[in-house]
Amino acid sequence: MSAMSEQLDMFLRICVPYGVMFILFIFNMVFFSTPLSTTIEIPFVVMIVYYWSIYRPTLISPLLVFIAGICLDSLSGFPLGLSSFVFLVIRKMVSEQRLFLTGQPFTVIWLGFGVVSALSALIQWVLFGLMHMHWTPIQPVNFTIIAGILLFPVIALLLNLSHRVLPLLPDQYSAVK
């Protein structure tokens, strides 16, 4: 295999997870309505940050997480920086627990996501309320948390499939936080 084709292969392999992340980012801006006439925002970006912070933190640098948060805030009408703050906190917290989490069964990863998802949704709700001095109903936040927890296994599978395409690291824990 020539050097040029190896570089092209490497580039295409790296594009796969970023393409999946981009599609999930777009889906994150879609609000789904329920029969109870509430809207649910499924936290796809929280899933992305959580998953990659455990399994390949070098793939989502803090700068990329910050930019994703700013873009999400700009496009969805949230106060600028709110999502960036929450995503950076998630990345930092999860990256610090990475060595523990990588050795755990999926149920522990799923439970961890449930905690992270609930905390991030509640933090966003509280900060949004404090910034606007107006408290929105908590029911949509609860539905968002539940929907995220229920969909996480499917999205984790999708992210895992895109992870398998990536080139291997020399050591499982060699990626820099």
Q: For this structure, what is the CATH class?
A: Mainly Alpha
Could you tell me the CATH topology label: Arp2/3 complex 21 kDa subunit ARPC3
Task: Return the CATH architecture.
Answer: Orthogonal Bundle
Give the helices and strands as they follow along the chain: HEEHHHHHH
Number of domains: 1
In the sheet with the most strands, the strands line up as 1-2
Number of strands: 2
Helix content: over 70%
Task: State the low-pLDDT regions, or none.
Answer: none
Q: Helical stretch count?
A: 7
Mean pLDDT: 88
Q: What summary fits the major beta sheet?
A: 2 strands, antiparallel
Strand pairing plus helix content: what structural class?
mainly alpha
- Gross morphology: globular
Report Rg: 17 Å
- Please state roughly what percent of the residues sit in beta strands, choosing from under 5%, 5-15%, 15-25%, 25-35%, 35-45% or over 45%: under 5%
N-to-C CA distance: 32 Å
